Amino acid sequence: MQVQNPPDVLREQLVAVGADSTGAALGADKEKVLKELKKRKLVVQKITKTLTVVKGPEFTENPAKAEAGTSPFSSLAATTRIAVT
Question: For residue 15, what is the enclosing H or E element?
Answer without folding.
Answer: helix 9-19
